[in-house]
Amino acid sequence: MGAVCCCFSEPIDFDSEVNLYHFELHRAVGKGAFGKVRVVEHKRTKKLYALKYVEKARCIKQKAVANIIQERRLLEEIDHAFVVNMRYAFQDDQNCFFVLDLMLGGDLRFHLERKGPLPEKVVAFWLAQLASAIAYLHRQHIVHRDLKPDNVLLDAQGNAHITDFNVAIHYSDRRPHTSVAGSMAYMAPEIFGQQGYSWQIDWWSLGITIYELLFNKRPFDGRNIERMKSAIAKDPLQFPTDLIPLGDHGINMLKQLIERNPSRRIGCRSTDQLDDFRQHPWFGSLEWDRLETKELTAPFIPDLKQANFDVSYELDEFLMVEKPLTHTKRKANTDLERLKPELRQLEEQFTVYDYDRSRRQSYYPHNQPVFTMTATGQSAHYQDGSVPLQPTATIAEASRSGSPEVFNSDTRSPHSLPAPYSS
Predict the structure, then answer these.
(1) To the nearest whole number, what is the mean pLDDT of the chain?
(2) How far apart (Å, rounded) are the C-alpha atoms in residues 152 and 230?
(3) How far, in Å, CA of 203 to CA of 26, rounded?
(4) Residue 293 C-alpha from the chain's centroid
(5) How far apart are CA 335 and CA 344, in angstroms?
(6) In angstroms, rounded to a whole number, what is the distance separating the alpha carbons of residues 200 and 293?
(7) Which of 63, 6, 13 has its CA nearest to residue 34?
(8) Distance separating alpha carbons of residues 34 and 64, to the nearest angstrom
(9) Known SUPFAM superfamilies for this protein (predicted)?
(10) How far is CA 251 from CA 109, 120, 189, 210, in A?
(11) Is 327 helix (H, G, I), strand (E, B) or coil?
């Protein structure tokens, strides 16, 4: 028997596989399509984390089993200063759990809605950090596919981190992807083309995100899918600098990010995707080495004396609108053969991860494709983007600021993911 805690009626063996009993449950701070996010504290180390828990029944109902497994695998591969990294993964009979780096500064959507257009100096700093993270993901052969203010979280020191890998995939060097996934207002024009797309789409989405942070609106408008597609493909990129000033270097950066030709887009022109960013005058004399080790002081520090999230997440549990999360023992000796195919797939493929004991491994290219199993035992769809391009929603978001829906033709349904760490 290893280290034991007797906080409950039965001792907790911290040398056994990680489980929910290893953590104290604190306040809820986010809500996604399948579950919530709350602050937790590891009982032995006293470290604070964010616990994202995904309800299995809701996940199966929305045909998102493959997405959850894919997200779990991708997060095991990732460890970067400006990514919300996974530290543990496990499950019980009702939920799958991701234990992630805790970000107390809130998401950029939260700050954008409360402060309006954000200062140029602040946004440039965040862009440098996010560019570093995206270049890292691409080196791991991962394309995020859903970059937007909602999916960027700040830590207590004001550093930006990419989160929510629910529709992320490994991209292929041999063939382009054709599935529609992500939030339409941030989608690159090549996603709607006939030739397919690859990792270059992340730089476009980052450009739309940066534009929105600076001007509190998105550059392309559309009241329906076809109008939005047309605007993304053809409308001129305009800058409301008469209302909100932006220097020439900032405008030049946006033009290079929101470039319709992927081969000319910044980040896509050299082997080292960060080269063009390091040399761009918008960053001035930024010390990139110190940036990537978080030695630089961020120009915006979140106010930790107030909640940097929607407090209604806690209110739902207080009013018993939703069943609160509790520590629950697993059923002993579960017969996998008797489980529904989707539950069995989760049991077998959503494996335990413990960063203190496990060595991060890459599943590329071995995890492509990921299938969702049906009751007949047949594979229902691919998660690697090899399905034909199909329309996935009936309305697209306009250019106004606000949380857009997420579309994923891999699962044939939209997922509304408004919250930090959402899934």
Answers:
(1) 83
(2) 27
(3) 36
(4) 22
(5) 9
(6) 26
(7) 63
(8) 9
(9) Protein kinase-like (PK-like) (SSF56112)
(10) 22, 11, 20, 11
(11) coil
Q: Can 164 be counted among the known catalytic residues?
A: no
Instruction: State the residue for tokens 């915006």.
Output: 300
Give me 162's structure tokens. 């990419």
Of 13, 79, 92, 146, the active-site residue reads: 146
Locate 347 and state its tokens: 């049991």
Q: How confident is the model at residue 34 (pLDDT cuts 50, 70, 90)?
A: low
Distance, in Å, from the CA atom of 14 to the CA atom of 17, rounded to the nearest integer, reads 8
Domains of the chain by range and CATH? 4-103+308-354 (3.30.200.20), 108-304+388-415 (1.10.510.10)
Q: Are 164 and 423 in contact (CB under 8 A)?
A: yes
User: Is residue 368 very low, low, confident or very high in pLDDT (cuts 50, 70, 90)?
Assistant: very low
CA distance 138 to 161: 15
Helix 201-215 to helix 248-257 angle (10° resolution) is 140
- Helix axis angle for 120-139 and 248-257, nearest 10°, is 30
How far apart CA 418 and CA 423 sit, in angstroms, is 9
Residue 365: pLDDT band (50, 70, 90) is low
- Cα dihedral sign, 384-385-391-394: positive
Q: Does 255 show up as a binding residue in the annotation?
A: no
pLDDT at 115 (0 to 100): 94
Rounded Cα distance between 220 and 26, Å, is 40
pLDDT at 379 over 60: no
pLDDT tens for each residue of 171-201: 988 889 999 989 999 999 999 988 899 999 9
The pTM of this model reads 0.84
What does the pLDDT read at residue 110? 93
Query: What is the number of alpha carbons within 13 Å of residue 380 lying toward its C-beta?
Result: 20
Which of these, 137, 78, 85, lies nearest to 273 by C-alpha position? 137
- Region 280-308 average pLDDT: 94
Q: Which amino acid is at 144?
A: H
Q: How confident is the model at residue 395 (pLDDT cuts 50, 70, 90)?
A: very low
